[in-house]
Design goal:
Length: 270
């Protein structure tokens, strides 16, 4: 399988010439590099990834209200809930009106599911979003607006899965937790190597790698940097590898740009 699912054995549309070449080159490289993809990624390689990505984010990262230093925990958690299966630009346009209508967990808990769904309709999936968000709001109000401390406890809350639990750990408790979605998975897989399992929530390699990448300082910023790169440059189709700060040491980027595959023994030094 191609890193980040850029190429796939199953497709509903024909491959372009670039994608077909990419598929063949990647398959040939993987035949000789399976052990390299599955061995423990070196600390130096992770640090090189972080360094280059944070430098790019400081100049080219996106600015959203929920990322501002004065953003409330409520705004950040609600935003992350709305960002699931919705673009950040769509949420950014929608959020001010929503926060004006529902400024607190209590205001969500106190409305009807129908009214909440009507407000969420522009984002799509409004019935599902309304049901899960209202249940979560009711539980948080019952807890005096205090989130639990551990991942297991947080994931036991209604409407909370792995992604939202990570957001709560990151923003409420300051813990290093990856906002692992398809964007982040694509960036990590294209740079470091592909996962084994279809579901990113249960792949040990990808889970461990994501946690390692966000550990240390600038935890929020490295999360946002990866998500922004995945949205703006490391796109699912037609990635802009020539503009990518990671292209020189990215396995997939080198293939797309017509360069030789990276030496599997490279440890991350420039």
């Amino acid at each position: 399988m191609f890193p980040g699912k850029l190429c796939s054995a199953r497709r509903s549309i024909p491959w372009s010439k670039m994608e077909f070449r990419c598929h063949l080159e990647t398959h040939r490289w993987q035949q000789h590099s399976d052990t390299a993809l599955n061995h423990d990624v070196s600390v130096a390689r992770v640090m090189a990834f972080r360094r280059k990505l944070l430098a790019w984010y400081n100049t080219d990262g996106r600015s959203f209200s929920w990322r501002y230093p004065n953003a409330s925990l409520y705004e950040r958690v609600v935003s992350e809930a709305l960002l699931q299966r919705t673009t950040a630009t769509a949420v950014a346009a929608f959020l001010p009106r929503f926060l004006e209508r529902f400024p607190t967990w209590g205001s969500i808990a106190g409305t009807t599911e129908e009214d909440l769904g009507n407000e969420l309709r522009p984002l799509g999936l409004w019935k599902r979003r309304a049901a899960s968000l209202k249940l979560l709001a009711e539980e948080i109000v019952r807890r005096d607006e205090a989130f639990p401390q551990t991942r297991d406890e947080i994931e036991s809350l209604p409407g909370v899965g792995q992604y939202i639990a990570s957001a709560v750990l990151l923003f409420a408790h300051g813990q290093a937790a990856p906002l692992l979605d398809t964007n982040m998975a694509r960036v990590l897989e294209r740079y470091f190597g592909p996962r084994k399992l279809a579901d990113i929530r249960y792949d040990p390699y990808l889970q461990q790698l994501a946690f390692r990448v966000v550990e240390g300082t600038d935890t929020k910023e490295i999360n946002w940097a990866i998500l922004d790169l995945g949205s703006l440059i490391c796109r699912p189709r037609n990635p802009l590898c020539a503009q990518c700060p990671l292209a020189e040491r990215c396995q997939t980027g080198r293939i797309i740009l017509g360069r030789s595959p990276l030496d599997p023994e490279w440890e991350g030094t420039d």
